[in-house]
Design a protein that fits this description.
Elements: E1 4-9, H1 14-26, E2 30-36, E3 56-60, H2 66-73, E4 79-82, H3 89-94, H4 97-117, E5 122-127, H5 150-169, E6 173-178, E7 180-182, H6 191-201, E8 205-208, E9 214-219, H7 220-233, E10 239-242, E11 247-249, H8 250-261, E12 268-271, H9 286-291, H10 300-313, H11 315-322, H12 326-336
Parallel strand pairs: 1-2, 1-4, 2-3, 4-5, 5-6, 6-10, 7-9, 8-12
Antiparallel strand pairs: 9-11
Helix pairs in contact: 1-7, 2-4, 4-5, 6-8
The structure holds nicotinamide-adenine-dinucleotide and 2'deoxy-thymidine-5'-diphospho-alpha-D-glucose (DAU).
């Protein structure tokens, strides 16, 4: 495989840091620059295994900063992979503003940079949430966008900007839309790390509404493998759905986590539902599996068990997060419900 120089944005977050580790392991001649604002969700501890690699470079900065992007892009990259985003639905309900700034404006600033410096490939890491909720069947890449939360709407707007740049200027974009990820280094505001760490602390696990909302869960390394394929073989101007078909209700998932942890079911606490809560996400992944020959390789049961073990082993990592600023958000969130 030819050498590549890649700019990863948002690489200090959950999926971005797993992606950087994946690329460093899999491609000995790829060079990665990670641009991250280090918001509450960005954590350089996630990258301690790669920080000494001479092929890895870190720059602190904001994707909405036009001058910074201009300076950074001038030396030339072979590809940009944009993970940088405000990513938590509940936070977008409390305050949509940072979602509009980073997810929409930040994407447009990057697209302008790609256009100006003629970067050959820009990957927009998007989400299944842009399609909205589906009771039966699965969304294909041709399904209409129908986002419901401010988060999902900001991601849909960013997708449309990418498509507009492709149609208008032939800016070389590819969009990926993935289902719910889980694995190491996920910030403990999201369901799996929240439930796991609360259970380890003997604290209640908040279940929104009736707990019967369905998500399709993909191990983060399989998402990284899909993005790796898209960088190498994805067709420009196209959208690729990524998912596993591991659909579970939130209650089924939490019961499984409690079983793996050997903790009692009475930790489950039903709380007021998330406003506008999408009932079910489900994607048809025929396109990526036929065109790029990608399919998930990790079994759901085994990777969930490995993830739980990682949180047990990484207590220092999540305790530091849970004792900081995050606590204020958590209290505010449940105070308002
Ligand atoms: P995350 O919240 O864990 O990480 C986001 C990262 O982006 C952090 O390191 C943060 O510091 C950085 N960031 C935020 N604003 C920035 C800005 N203005 N400039 C530069 N950096 C900034 O998110 P995640 O769960 O790793 O998600 C990564 C991407 O994947 C997001 O675009 C998200 O929409 C998408 N996605 C996530 C999932 C999932 O299940 N987590 C599924 C599908 C798609
Ligand atoms: O589908 C992909 C999306 O998955 C990504 O685009 C988002 O960035 C990511 O945050 C995730 O969004 P969800 O809203 O699906 O994930 P979350 O972990 O917040 O919630 C999963 C489900 O669990 C959802 O139905 C809400 C519910 N939930 C969540 C939390 C945090 C609870 O019942 N209790 C909780 O405390």
């Amino acid at each position: 495989m030819a050498a590549m120089k890649i700019l990863v944005t948002g690489g200090a977050g959950f999926i971005g840091s797993n992606f950087i580790q994946h690329i460093i392991q899999e491609h000995s001649n790829w060079d990665i620059t990670n641009l991250d604002k280090l918001t509450y969700a960005g954590n350089l501890e996630n990258l301690k295994d790669v920080e000494k690699e001479h092929r890895y470079h870190f720059a602190k900065g904001d994707i909405t900063d036009r001058e910074l992007i201009d300076r950074l892009l001038s030396p030339g990259f072979d590809a940009i992979v944009n993970f940088a985003a405000e990513s938590h639905v509940d936070r977008s309900i409390l305050d949509p503003s940072p979602f509009i700034e980073t997810n929409i404006k930040g994407t447009q600033v990057l697209l302008e940079g790609v256009r100006k410096y003629q970067i050959p490939r820009y990957i927009q890491v998007s989400t299944d949430e842009v399609y909205g909720s589906i009771d039966n069947g699965s969304f294909t890449e041709k399904s209409p966008l129908s986002p419901n939360s401010p988060y999902a709407t900001s991601k849909a707007a960013a997708d449309l900007l990418c498509l507009a740049y492709w149609k208008t200027y032939r800016t070389p974009i590819v969009i990926t839309r993935c289902t719910n990820n889980f694995g190491p280094y996920q910030f403990p505001e999201k369901l799996i790390p929240l439930a796991t760490t609360n259970a380890l602390e003997g604290k209640p696990i908040p279940v929104y509404g009736d707990g019967l909302n369905i998500r399709d869960w993909l191990y983060v390394v399989d998402h990284c493998r899909a993005l790796d394929s898209v960088i190498q073989k994805g067709t420009l101007g196209q959208i690729y759905n990524i998912g596993s078909g591991n659909e579970r209700t939130n209650l089924e998932l939490i019961h499984k986590l409690l079983e793996l942890l050997g903790k009692p079911k009475d930790l489950i606490q039903f709380v007021t539902d998330r406003p506008g809560h999408d009932r079910r996400y489900s994607l048809d992944v025929t396109k990526i599996s036929t065109e790029l020959r990608w399919k998930p390789t990790y079994s759901f049961e085994e990777s969930l068990a490995a993830t739980v073990k990682w949180y047990i082993k990484s207590e220092n990592w999540w305790r530091r997060i849970k004792s900081g600023e995050y606590t204020k958000y958590y209290q505010k969130m449940y105070h308002q419900r």
